[in-house]
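ligand=flavin-adenine dinucleotide
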Amino acid sequence: MTTLLIAEHDNKTLNPATAKTMSAASALQAPVDILVAGHNCADVAQQAAKLTGCQKIIHADAPHLEHHLAEEMAQVITALMEDYTTAITPATTNGKNFMPRVAAALDVMQLSDITDVLAPNQFERPIYAGNALQIVESTDEKRVITVRTTKFPAVEETGQADVELLELPEPKSVSQYVSENLSQSDRPELASASIVVSGGRALGSKENFEKYIEPLAQTLGAAIGASRAAVDAGYISNDYQVGQTGKVVAPDLYIAIGISGAIQHLAGIKDAQTIVAINKDEEAPIFQIADYSLVGDLFELVPQLQAALENR
Ligand code: FAD
C-alpha cells in the first residue's frame, strides 16, 4: 500500500511542484517514497529527503536518465511498481510524457490532472476546459496519477528521509536526446509566479506588447503571460500562452489586459487569487470572473497604472 512519488527536477534543483504533489500523495493515506531519477542529481535527492511525509528516497542516477526521456523513465518506474500501489507525479510536461507509458505498461487507466483527493481511490479532476468537475473512482489494483499542482499546498521541509541508490536495468536506448532551446528570462517562471501580467489580441503588435506589458511586469516583479490570440499573432512566443492549451497558472494576482476571457483562457487562470481585467468592452466575459474591472482603453489605462505604481 505504498505510494511512489516521482520527483520533478532539472538535476540540480527540486521543482516546487514536487512538494505540492507530496500533499496529494499524503492524502492517499499510505506511506510515500520519492523517486529522484536523473543524472548527477544527488543534491536533488537531499532536497527531496526534507519533504515532510517522505519515508524514503530512491535515487536512480545514470546518464540515460539525465533528460527524463519517457521510455527510460517509464522502464524504471514500471519495474519499481511491483512494490507500490500508486505512482504519482506533477502534471508537468515531463509527467505528462512518461506517466501514460507507465499506465499502459501496467495495463491500468491513468487518473490525469487530479485537483483533489476525496478518498484514497476517489479523485476530482476538471473536464471541458475546466468548466465541469468530474469525480472519478479507480478500481484498478495499481493507480497512475498526475496532479494539477496549483490546487495543492506545498508540504513543509521538516523531514530527513534516507536515500537509497537504485540498481538500474540496461537503458532501452530507443530514443535519444538531441537538444533543447529554453527561453532565457530574469522574470519569475510563469507557472509558479505570484504575479502574472498577461496581454491579449488588443495589444495589436509585438511592439505594443513590449511597450505596455513588459514595463508593467517589470515594475511588479511579475511573469508575463499571453492569450492564444496574442501568441498566434506573433506578439510573443507560445511558451507564454496561458489557458487550456497553454500554461495553467495560480498566482496571487493575475492582470488580464485586452483579453476577452474565452473559456479556453479562463481554464488556465481559475485558481488565481485575485483577477484584475482591463477591457474596453464592459460586456467582455473576463469581467464575470474578475475581482477588479477596469473598463476603458488599455493604451490609456496601462500607462496610468504604470505611473501610479512607480509613484508608490
Ligand atoms: P479576443 O477574443 O479578440 O479579445 C480581445 C479583447 O480585447 C476584446 O474583449 C476587446 O474588447 C478587448 N479590446 C480591444 N481593444 C482594446 C483596447 N484598446 N483596450 C482594452 N481592451 C480592448 N486561448 C487562450 O488564451 N489560451 C488557450 O490555451 C487557448 N486554447 C484554445 C484551445 C482550443 C481548442 C480553441 C478552439 C481555442 C483556444 N484558445 C485559447 C482561443 C480562445 O478561444 C480565444 O480565441 C482567445 O483566448 C482570444 O484571445 P484574446 O482574448 O486575446 O482575443
